[in-house]
Amino acid sequence: MLNLMQRAHASLPLVAVLLGALVFLAGCQSSPPGRRPVGQTTDAERRSPQQQPTSLTEFREQVPAELLQQLWDLPEISEIPGPVTILMGDINNKTGIVSTNDYEYVTSGIRGRLINSRSARDKLYFVEQRARVERLAERERVATNPPPGQRVVTPGGGVYYVPDYDASRTFALTMDVYRIGRGNTNLYSMEVMLVSMGTNRIVFRDEYQMKQVSD
Known about the structure:
Layout: H1 2-30, H2 43-47, H3 53-70, H4 75-78, E1 84-94, H5 100-115, E2 124-126, H6 130-140, E3 151-153, E4 159-161, E5 170-182, E6 185-196, E7 202-213
Parallel strand pairs: 1-2, 1-5
Antiparallel strand pairs: 3-4, 5-6, 6-7
């Protein structure tokens, strides 16, 4: 009897090792490599202190929905006859650990959803950044001289060009992002504003906050 107990006691470390290996393998099998739904948070994302992609996706869907709902109640836009021009403004990234590219993903999604919206298609007119268009035009040798009427010659012989956009009917979509960190806990705040280029007035604002704890 004593011999059997001694054998059982001696085998306990081996059993513990085997159980640990099984748990490790089970954990590996729970997150196999491959594609995941966009709304699913992976183990790697949970371990990272950076803002989770799911919250970025949620915000890029939230802003267009809110703006389209309020669009015709904004007198600064609705009372202007014809379409207004929307410029993609700067991203003020104050997180310190998240790439600005992540927030460009948000703003590009906002722009795409607004452009494809039937209710806003005839009212919101989006333009690409001038530097990007000019680089493409130079590479492909596309003529970009201003059309007649925009080039003005003064009596003294000087030349200037009429601005492409009327400030009274042009708006900029800007984004500010902040992070408050405490240990492995981070509070992220994303704010999008639509600003009148003529008055600097904020005519629309939407905010998204989320707190996450990394492993």
